[in-house]
Structures are given as C-alpha cells and as structure tokens.
Automatic annotation (TrEMBL), chain A:
This is Ribosomal RNA-processing protein 42. GO terms for cellular component: cytoplasmic exosome (RNase complex); nuclear exosome (RNase complex); nucleolus. Belongs to the RNase PH family. It holds the Pfam family RNase_PH.
TrEMBL record, chain B:
The lineage of its organism: Eukaryota, Metazoa, Ecdysozoa, Arthropoda, Hexapoda. This is Exosome complex component RRP4. Component of the RNA exosome core complex (Exo-9), composed of EXOSC1, EXOSC2, EXOSC3, EXOSC4, EXOSC5, EXOSC6, EXOSC7, EXOSC8 and EXOSC9; within the complex interacts with EXOSC4 and EXOSC7. The catalytically inactive RNA exosome core complex (Exo-9) associates with the catalytic subunit EXOSC10/RRP6. Exo-9 may associate with DIS3 to form the nucleolar exosome complex, or DIS3L to form the cytoplasmic exosome complex. Exo-9 is formed by a hexameric base ring consisting of the heterodimers EXOSC4-EXOSC9, EXOSC5-EXOSC8 and EXOSC6-EXOSC7, and a cap ring consisting of EXOSC1, EXOSC2 and EXOSC3. PROSITE patterns: S1. GO terms for biological process: CUT catabolic process; exonucleolytic trimming to generate mature 3'-end of 5.8S rRNA from tricistronic rRNA transcript (SSU-rRNA, 5.8S rRNA, LSU-rRNA); nuclear polyadenylation-dependent rRNA catabolic process; poly(A)-dependent snoRNA 3'-end processing; regulation of gene expression; TRAMP-dependent tRNA surveillance pathway; U4 snRNA 3'-end processing.
From TrEMBL, chain C:
Keywords: Coiled coil, Cytoplasm, Exosome, Nucleus, RNA-binding, rRNA processing. It is found in: Cytoplasm; Nucleus. It comes from the Eukaryota. This is (African queen) hypothetical protein. One of its GO terms (cellular component) is nuclear exosome (RNase complex). The keyword Cytoplasm applies. GO terms for biological process: nuclear mRNA surveillance; poly(A)-dependent snoRNA 3'-end processing; rRNA catabolic process; rRNA processing; U4 snRNA 3'-end processing. Residues 271-301 form a coiled coil. Residues 58-182 form the Exoribonuclease phosphorolytic domain. CDD domains: RNase_PH_MTR3. Pfam families: RNase_PH. Belongs to the RNase PH family. GO terms for molecular function: RNA binding.
Amino acid sequence: MAGLLLSPSEKVYILHGIEDDFRSDGRSNIDYRPMELETDVVSHASGSARLRLANTDILVGVKTEIDVPKPDKPNQGKIDFFVDCSANATPEFEGRGGEQLANNISNLMQRAYHSEQAFDLKQLSIFEGKQCWKLYVDILILECGGNLCDAVSLAVKAALFNTRIPFVKAALLDGGNVDLQLSDDPYDSKLLEVGTAPLLVTLCKIGEKCVVDPSAEEESCSVISLVVGVTGNPKCYCSNEDASKLHEHISKCSTIAMNGPGSVAPQTLTNAIKQGINAAKYLDEALGKALLRERQDITNFVKHSYGFFK
Amino acid sequence: MTGHVSIRLASERVNHCVPCPNELPRFYTPGEVITGMQDFMRGHGTYAEDDSLKSSVAGVMQKVNKLICVRPLKSRYVGEIGDVIVGRVLEVQQKRWKVETNSRLDSILQLSSVNLPGGELRRRSAEDEQMMRKHLQEGDLISAEVQSVFSDGSLSLHTRSLKYGKLSQGVLVKVFPSLIKRRKNHFHNLPCGVSIIIGNNGYIWISPHKQDIILEDNHDEIENYDLQAVKRSDREIIARVKNCISALVASKMMLDDTSIMFAFEQSLKYDNVKELLDPEAMLDIAFLTQHMLNDITED
Amino acid sequence: MPLDYRRFNGPEDSVSYRRFTEDYTKDYKQFLDELIDENGRRKGGREMDEARTLCMFFARTGMISQAKGSSYIELKRTKVACSVFDPREIVHQNEYSTLGQLYCEVKFAPFSCRGERKALVPDSDERALSVALKKALEPAVCRHLFPNYQIDIFIYILENDGACLPAAINAAGLALSDAAVPMYDIITASSVAISGDKIFVDPTDDEEQLAIRNHDGVNHGVITMSMLPELQQVSDYRQIGSMDADCVLNALSILEKECKKIVPYVQRVLVQNAINSFEQQKKLEEEAKEREEALNAKMEVWKSILNVG
C-alpha cells in the first residue's frame, strides 16, 4: 500500500494512543469512521453501489451474463471479482503499480464468497447443466485512504443487494440447445438473496493491540494485519415480519487471511478473530439498515440520484 | 464491547455550506479578461495578451497598488520569505535536507541554516556532515521559516531560532494552504492546553504543551521525553482540536487561532470526541463558529 | 484464460473422463463413508489426527544441483520440489529498499492434479499459492541482511494429493536453510480439512474436496497455518470455507501442535545434512593428505635419484 512516511515520534504517539484505546481522532479501537453509501449509481450495470469511508472511495458495478455452468457444479451459477486500482487514487497505481494489491483483494473476495453458506450460487442457475447466470463484479478504487478491504466488501454487498436479474419466462430444450425467453419488462426482475454475503474486517496489529478501520497513518505503523471474512445475518436485510420467520443465525468465518510481512502470536490471532467477528456483526447491522432505507426510498419513488457530486 | 458504525445514504448527506456575511468576491476563470493592460502590472496567475491582462487560473483577483494577481482557490503552497511552515524531511543529501512542504517543488534546508548543538558560531565541519542523519532523518517533521525563494520557485528554509526545529509527538493535519490566514504569529499555546503550529503551507501541527527543558545539557533526557506516553487528557484535547479543524475545513472556513479556539469551545457540548466525526456535528460546529466570528467583527 | 499459442494446448473443450464415472455422482454421505471406515480410520489407514510427516525425506543437491539450496518433500502422494537461488541485486528497481525481497513462484506440473491438466501459464490458483508462500516465508528470513537484494524461491509441485501449500512451505523452509540463508527460526506448516465434526489433519485431495463442499450448513473448510515454532509466532493463516468461531479456534490449537510436531523431522534432516557434508569434508581432507604423502615419497625418491646422479 501507499508508503506513507511518518517520523518515529509520530508513530510513538499513535502507538500509545492505541494502547490507551483512544486514537488520534478520538475513536476507540473498535470504531469505524462514518461512511456514506449510495446504490444504483451506474445505469448500465445490473446493480451498483458507491461507498465512501473517510477518504476511501469505492465504486462497484455488477454485470450479468449468461454462461455455461462448470461441469462439476451443474446447478450453480458463477461469480467473479475484478479489482481495478485506478491511477486516480494515487499515482503509485500507475501502470502495473496497483496490480498486486488488486490481485490480493480480488483473491480475498473470491475466497470469502466461495462457500455456499456465504453466497448461494444455486440462485443463479437457469437450466441445470446447460445455462446459468454469471455475475461480473467489477470493483473500482477511486480513492485510497486506508482500509480498502472492508470498504470493498461493504460496497460489493450493497451492489449485489441492488442487483436485478431479468426474469426467465421459459427455458426450452431444443435439440441440445437451450432457448431462453426473457421478460421484456425491465421491472420484471428478481433480486438476489445476499443476506449471508460476507463482510471483511481488517484488524491492524499495532503494538500489542488490534484496531479496526485503520487510517492510512495507522496502517503505516503496522507490519501485519489480519482480514476476517464473516458471513452476514440475513435478518438484517429484510423487513421485520420476514425476519421473524428466519431461524436464528450464527455468524461464521468464511475466510481468514493475513497481510503484511510480520507475524503474530497464536494468542493474538485468537483474540483478533473474536474481535473481527464481533465487529462484523455491527457492520452488517448498519449496512442492512442503510440498504433497507434506500430501498424504501426507491419503492416510494423519492430517491434522488446523487452520483459523484461531492 | 460495542463498536460504533454509522452508514448514511447519499440522500442524507450534509451540506457543509455555512452562510458567510461578506459579499462573495468576483471569480475569474482562465482566459477571462481582467483589465486593459495600460497601467497595471502583471502578477501571479495572470498573463498579458492583446493589450489586456487575462487570468490564467480560476480564482479571486487581488490588487496591491498596481500589481494584479489572481489567487487560485485550491493550489499548492506558494512560499514567501518569512513564512512559518511545517514540513517533512524526505531525503538527506550532501550538506542539505530535502523537505516536503506542500509546495510545487521540494524545499531545501541547508546544513548551514540549522542550529547545531554547541553554539551558533561554530564552523560546520566534515563531522557535522556525517552526523546529519543523527540530527534529522527521513520522515522527521520540522517547523521552519522560509529564508529565501530560488529562481525556480523552490524554497530555502532555516531553523535558526529555538522555536523552530524538529517536532516530537503530536498530530499533523493537512489542509489547503489557501485556508490559512496570514498572521504575525503562527505558534500558539492554546488556553485549552495544547500547542499548535499553523504552518502557512497548510500543515498544522498539534502537540501537547512542552515543559521547558534545557536544550543544551541533557540530550538523553530530551530523547526520553520524546518517547514518553502523552497523558490521556492531553490526548483527548489534541483529538478534539484535530476534529474541530477538520470540521472548519469541511465548511471551507479560514483557520487561525481564534477560529480554532471558537470551534473548540463550541465542540465542548459534545462530550465524546468521536461524535465530532459525524458530519452533522461538524456542520453544527462550523456554523456556530461562524456565528461567533461574526459577533466579534460586528463589535 | 490467456493461452500460450506457441505451444500445443490440446482441444479447448475437452472434459475429464472422470465426469462420466460413478465417482462423480456420489453424494456427500457416500463420499464421507468412503473416506472413513467403520473403525474411524481414514482411507489410507491413518488416524484422523495423524499427519503424513513420517515418510518425509530430503534430498539435497541430488534434487537440483544448479541451485544454491534445494529440497524435495514427499507426503505419500504429494510431491514437491523446491529450489532457492542466491540473493541477487534487484534490477529495474526505482526505490532502494532496506529489506531484502523474496520472490516466490509456485507451479503445478501439468499432470500433477487429478482434475484437468494444468496449463503452462500460471493460473489464479498458482498465483494465490505464490502469494501465500511469500507471506509465510517473509517473517522467517532475516531480510535486513539483504538490502536491495532478492532471493528467488521456486516450487514445483510434481504431484498433488492435498496439503500442497503446507508441503511447499515446509520444502521452502528446508531449501532456505540448505542455501544458508539466515533465518530467525525453522518454518513449518500444516493444514486441516474440516467437514462437520470431522477434522482431517494433513488432508488428502479427496478429503479437501469433501471439506470444500457445503452440506446442510455444517462447518466446512480448509485451514492452512505456518509457524515459527521456537518464536511462537504465526507467520501465515489462511482459511477457506465457512465455520463458526469455536471451530476456527479449535483448529488453530490443533494446527499449532501439528506445526511443532514437524520440527524434529526438519531438524533431523538438517543435522543429517550437516553431518554428511562434514564427513565428506573429512574424507576429502584425508584423501588430500594421502596424496600429499604420496607426493612427498615421490619427491624423496627423485631427490635420492638426483643425489646419486
């Protein structure tokens, strides 16, 4: 990540602050900075979202295409993640500069969404063994101010929540070829079930403690961070009546990975995993509330598009 | 253990505009004619063409006697002699340091324009050159004054006064240089208990009050002092001042010790410092500060 | 996927014949039954918590004589070769780096996997493994001793029967110590596959496949962890699948033990290696001495001949 230069005494200040559970902007170690979210910002995508977390700015667009399912998973669709670190974010990303970071994030997302318990690919099936939907999730990093993984996972979940897939009226098997009839009405579409989609929580180890949502300065004080992917609670993403019908949800880890050149003691790792699961719960609740509010606005036709004006 | 997460929608976005009592100045855009050429002198941000003076940047016109300048609203720092700046050492070179000061070119701090331990009138020896990294190393923050401006616009700095030099623990806030109000004094000990250096280049340094230590004698003690933990109460005040500055910046308000102090006073009604990160609270503080500023100008 | 057109790539839409065999249509239950017999033992006769470490062995220069250090690890049917090349200066580097860089590359042999044939250009699996390997090794190597230098580590997976990442990390750790690259500690790695309440230590390919499948919302997944056992530090931890916190923490403690179990084996290999080279040295010295004596004797003879003359 962007190599920010800090003087040793600034680092000492940040370090002591984290030990004291009082960071340089007044947050405690488990607080996130305020975020701003808008869905449905790109008209040509099936679903899109833009998330701004302090100075980090992420735009996600979801495109849907028809594909042939993998032979070993005939009743499942496909989902693919692509990350583009544009040179707009920081000049360091110019050329191939951001490639490694982009690869890292897309790998992480792919693994987090791998399990069926995190994201059910069966809902993307059209005709078993013959045709399925393929989701292309394109993640654009517009600005980079620390804590990319968390912001990306939030934006992706919001974009998938917003994604509409055309309704297939009929699928006929015609001499080995599948003949699809899609509905002409653009509003006649189905939404995806994304309640369980995972969120990533980055825990940055600074000194002896771990913090969530590190700023760019804090990131440069740390040699290792842990990324925990935690499956979401579908109850947060539907109305109250529907929620009561769902059975109790247990958050599960869908991926864990480490970033940075350092290493940690097993005990720290255990604590960090617990802390990550805990943080993900609050993150998930907040995202669910925001998305439901947005959907309310859309159904009442009062939603204005704000787009990229800031 | 509960984390605080807030996700707001774009439709709930806070508009950070604060009404300003002064009349809005006239804006010029690049290529716009400012005046006929005859009696005026061409300053920064302007160029002459066809007997008229035109603006080359988007900004506000400033007229000093016959000199016409257009000051862009958002630009890198353009240094002037005597400015107080806060900068970061980027590189240690032969007999000089390269310092990042938010200006177009990196500034230079000559070995001959710093105070070295052992008195001012000491000759710079070859040993001093080898010890340069001991004095200031890459990443260190310094406060300094602009000594001269080179022909290409890069700045030469000096720290030949006890108030300048290396900065120890604290927080750096970066804002647009155009938001800094030029004052006689840029070093302030705020009554709330922190020191603040408002660099003309838009870098603001907030640090706890430093006890006066005798600089010459006990070098070790100073280094230990550098690494001592800052008290929680000081830390809270520093964080509060930092968030107040970001609130003022979000509303594009001019920064000097009075506006920062007013904002700090207003922010005290929010008990928790982290509440100040919320856009609504930020607007509230900026609005109230503007109000207080209006009151004193009316008096 | 980008294809290398200079090579013969084979028909594009070919499908592995295994798809049409009975194996393919097995459901979860059958799959599980096949892997575990009625006594609770695994298919290969191992206990659930028994790793394959026992038959690990190490061939030093025998493997790759051109490399500075090399190693070969065999866990029954998982076979991994590793070579380490000398630190060399990084070319085309715009910034001076105070820490040395590790360059890791993991490659599957085209015939190494049971499924489809691996392409010659690196695919996403291989890239992910390379990144994981680099992450695992970085904390172990004293990188400050090689400013602006790069150490190359190449892994070739000859045969993959599960747990190829831990095998690669173990092999790389051995090869690095063989190449006399300064390290803080020996590095060891291990993995577990989890499916419901079954925890397979050091899983085979079949067991990994089983663990990746979702069945009825139970815990499932594969976890790989690498450790610096003496320093008590986890250098990498990677999980795929979905499981609750207790399960993760349980697996973590199992992996910690497994990583420590490997240490004596690694140490034995290294010590054996040192003894061998020491003995070789001694032998060479003896031979040299013998030759010198022979030469001296010859000299005496010549001298006497000359004197006589």
